[in-house]
Amino acid sequence: MNKYEEIANELRRRIAESEYAEGEMLPDQIALSKEFNVSRMTLKKAIDIIAMEGLVFRKRGVGTFVLKSALWNTSDSKIDDYTGLSKQFPNKKVESKIILFDIVFPSKELQSLLMIEENDPVYHIKRLRIIDNKPYILEETYFVAGLVQQLTEETIYASIYEYIQQTLGLKIGGAYRKIHADLPNELDLLELNCTESTPILEVEQVVYLTNGTPFEYSTSRSRYDTRAYTITDIIKQ
Amino acid sequence: MNKYEEIANELRRRIAESEYAEGEMLPDQIALSKEFNVSRMTLKKAIDIIAMEGLVFRKRGVGTFVLKSALWNTSDSKIDDYTGLSKQFPNKKVESKIILFDIVFPSKELQSLLMIEENDPVYHIKRLRIIDNKPYILEETYFVAGLVQQLTEETIYASIYEYIQQTLGLKIGGAYRKIHADLPNELDLLELNCTESTPILEVEQVVYLTNGTPFEYSTSRSRYDTRAYTITDIIKQ
DNA sequence: AAGTGGTCTAGACCACACA
DNA sequence: GTGTGGTCTAGACCACTTT
Predict the structure, then answer these.
(1) A137/A203 same-domain check
(2) Is A100 inside a domain boundary?
(3) How far is B136 from chain A (nearest CA, A)?
């Protein structure tokens, strides 16, 4: 772990536990760099990180303040999280029910989204993610089989993302997402414990490796009352 | 203009004009820092910026490469847009119907979200945004009256965000957003031309000035079949 | 072993706010 | 003027990949 990451973690903790209270000023950078025994550059990098996350804001000539809003500390999924559900809900029972697991050739649309040819096979997976015995997310995923190799049922029951990142060593570079509401489809009615008038939240995404290669197209559907997405957006000045 | 911004601009130009072509490697950091006559730290900061924008990606031990992806570069229709609907739909007729316009004192929750006291008045506005004669978004907005001063009905019919940025000269620093699906409420049924089983997409947001002061809390509701939000998310390496 | 990007330092100077 | 955050340097060492 880098020094600046460790410092950022410690600062996050202090803010979370109100050692630095809302609206209050943090100690100045020189004092903090002395406390952590690092150079001011390194300390500033840590503050850069938590400022990007929206925890603090800085006023040149004045100081660094804790920024807070009740919305901030919710349990909603952060949209830019690739750790998988088990990490996001460490204290809950996370299970998967596999509805479909197959290898197919991609449709025209999928070829275009994943930048592959018609003879490049893709894994096609439908999973129901269950948290604390309640149906939570219905995922339909296509993985480029040439990249995400040797996917087994066993892996799908556990965490696919852990497999991709830890075992295969692939590095995720980013994602393009679309969020919209939808009417429930037949599978939703069957699996998500909802009726025909239950709104559904769907996140559609293409996920890329660091070299720009798309490796996944997926849709994640949840009942309107079980999931929300949060986005912190800070304009770079 | 800082050195690293100038260098980032120059690198953007070279990539845009294919002086560094797609997939090719940039000169290494030491060579570039010599070319621009800056320290390597400063040069790296410039590359950090264009990497965050998704123009290049870096492989430790290998080099820095020009990254291209059609999706990546068209990501300008992003969620973080503060120009107002008229700018987003330049070729369409954008109208507003004012449902409510009032000044009130904030609820406890609003006080916390906007970091104000109970005796700090807020504007309370409900507007229906209409595009090409079709109801599009139902907005409920609270502005901190001490910041967004002298709001008139006239302004609300036009663009509030233009007023805030152009006339008042306030600078928007960012926003915290939550996206979820919802059941239609009574006002939705009345104004958005929907039935009780029409899913609604709601975006809830707190918008901040550059100094971290929240000035707006709002919810924007649309029918599921009229609006989606897109997000491009590039992981910092 | 050589070359790449990533981190970190100790110190300098600048830009800005406020008293 | 004093104190804050922002930028920049010149050089060191580390982590990783390729030869």
Answers:
(1) yes
(2) yes
(3) 14
Residue A151 domain boundaries: 77-230
Residue A86 covered by a domain: yes
Task: Indicate whether B121 and B164 sit together in one domain.
Answer: yes
CATH number assigned to the domain comprising residue A25? 1.10.10.10
A:92-111 residues touching chain B, CB 8 A cutoff: none
Based on the domain organization, do A18 and A84 belong to the same domain? no
Residues 29-68 of B with CB under 8 A from A: 41, 54, 57, 59, 65, 67-68
Which residues lie closer than 8 Å to B107 by C-beta, 6 or more apart? Answer: none
Calculate the angstrom distance between C1' of C14 and CA of A189. 63
What pLDDT is attached to residue B109?
86
Whichever domain contains B142, its CATH number is 3.40.1410.10
A114 and A215 in a common domain: yes
The pLDDT score that the predictor gives to residue B71 is 40
Q: Say yes or no: B45 and B114 in one domain.
A: no
Nucleotides of D under 7 A from a protein CB: 3-12, 15-18
Q: Which residues of chain A have pLDDT under 70?
A: 24, 68-91, 166, 169, 210-212, 232-237
Burial (CB < 10 A; 0-12, 13-18, 19+), residue A92, is middle
Q: A232 in contact with B at a CB cutoff of 8 Å?
A: yes
pLDDT tens, residue by residue, A163-209? 777 677 677 777 778 888 999 999 999 999 999 999 999 998 888 77
Phi and psi at B169, nearest 5°, equal: 75, 20
Exposed / middle / buried, residue A73 (Cβ in 10 Å: 0-12, 13-18, 19+): exposed
Rg (CA), chain B: 22
Question: Is the same domain home to B130 and B60?
Answer: no
Helix (H) or strand (E) holding B104: strand B94-104
Burial (CB < 10 A; 0-12, 13-18, 19+), residue A166, is exposed
Is position A38 within any domain? yes
Backbone angles phi, psi at B156, to 5 degrees: -65, -35
B196 and B144 inside one domain: yes
Partner-chain contact B182 A199, CB within 8 Å: yes
Domain count for chain A = 2
Q: Are residues B92 and B114 in the same domain?
A: yes
Would residue B237 count as lying in a domain?
no
Q: How far apart are CA B176 and CA B203, in angstroms?
A: 10
Q: A-chain residues within 8 Å CB-CB of B48?
A: none
Say how far apart CA A46 and CA A75 lie, in whole Å: 24
